[in-house]
Design goal:
Structural class: alpha/beta
Mean pLDDT: 95
Number of domains: 2
Order of helices and strands: EEHEHEHEHEHHEHEHHEHHEH
Helix content: 25-40%
Strand content: 5-15%
Strand order of the largest sheet: 1-2-10-7-8-9
Distance between the termini: 60 Å
Number of strands: 10
Shape: globular
């Protein structure tokens, strides 16, 4: 999508702070955006852009602010999404705020309970299909779009909202050397790249960052193709990873993601589930940031690559999205003396 007559005039806060850079000047909002950019203790030049601080706990809220606004203004009464969880939670919340009915098509057994709870709490109609995310998206594309306004990331308005992350990073750091992004359905990395390119077009970003896409080893259709020098993805029929938000074998936005990585001089990389969970623990114990596994994948990639210069790792979702993945250990004390003895250790 080309935004005509854009100019740099940030005012207010959040996504709509950048109305002069967007195709819409105002719309539905729950205070999304303006998320923390935290200097990490894990590596000298590493910063964490913590998208878990958005209203429903993920970066999806940026895009839903615009997507749901367009749905409402177009006269739609219903919206529909396929989801691994975060899109479901965000679409349900923003639809509820706008008075729209929300239908969510989910892959049975492949959605973290925290995200499922959010969508249900916000009143969405939940529909389970046998299969993975790709099957759910196929249903939405082939059937759902005939009856409801679609809000998956093939919707260009969604990506317009998500590009605002680049504007926030620019305001705090100017343009970093690298931006590292978890890649599932592959829309976010292209949206962020679009934001930086628009800053460059206005003369605000003299040196564009290299975009690095991170995929889990068991769900890496783009990274595997990149390693082999292929121009098209090596789709995965049965992706497998603890990072359910990026457990996608056939990403619909792959052409945009490939273009973003190529144009920026970046690359794709894979990380193992063990590396993802280690990065999740390090983020929590050293930086105080709770990330869901998919969000921690970007940090796992950054630590694995040991990139030089200024590096921004985008942590896409909050740890509470997927609480079951974290092992909890607790020690029992029978009385105050045992507690004191423990504290004195």
């Amino acid at each position: 999508m080309v935004v005509r007559e854009k100019y740099w005039n940030p005012r207010g806060r959040g996504v709509w702070r950048y109305a002069s850079m967007l195709p819409l000047r105002s719309g539905v909002s729950m205070g999304e955006g303006w998320t923390p950019l935290v200097k990490s203790n894990l590596d000298g030049g590493l910063y964490i852009k913590f998208e878990g601080a958005n209203p429903t706990g993920s970066f999806k809220d940026r895009g839903m602010a615009l997507g749901v606004t367009v749905a409402k203004e177009s006269g739609a009464s219903k919206v529909v999404v396929a989801s691994t969880g975060n899109t479901a939670a965000s679409a349900a919340a923003y639809a509820a705020r706008s008075g729209l009915k929300c239908y969510v098509v989910l892959p049975r057994g492949n959605v973290a309970r925290g995200k499922l709870m959010q969508a249900a709490l916000h009143g969405a109609e939940l529909v389970m299909v046998n299969g993975l995310f790709d099957k759910a998206l196929e249903y939405v594309l082939n059937y759902g779009t005939k009856y409801a306004y679609p809000l998956n990331s093939f919707n260009p308005w969604r990506l317009e909202g998500q590009k605002t992350l680049a504007f926030e990073v620019y305001e705090e750091l100017e343009c970093p050397d690298y931006v590292v992004v978890p890649v599932g359905n592959a829309g976010n990395i292209s949206a962020i790249w679009k934001g930086f390119k628009e800053l460059a077009e206005l003369g605000l970003c003299r040196k564009l960052p290299k975009m690095v896409g991170v995929q889990a080893e068991g769900a890496a259709p783009l990274a595997r193709a990149w390693e082999k020098g292929r121009s098209e993805p090596l789709f995965v029929d049965e992706p497998e990873t603890v990072a359910t938000a990026i457990k996608i074998g056939k990403p619909i936005n792959w052409p945009k993601a490939f273009a973003a990585v190529r144009e920026s001089g970046g690359f794709f990389v894979t990380v193992s589930d063990a590396e993802i969970l280690k990065a999740q623990r390090l983020l929590a114990s050293r930086d105080g940031i709770g990330a869901e596994p998919a969000g921690a994948a970007s940090v796992a990639g950054a630590l694995k690559l040991r990139l030089s210069g200024t590096v921004v790792a985008v942590v896409t979702g909050h740890a509470l999205k997927d609480p079951d993945v974290v092992e909890i250990n607790a020690r029992e004390v029978k009385n105050a003396d045992e507690l004191v003895a423990l504290l004195e250790q």
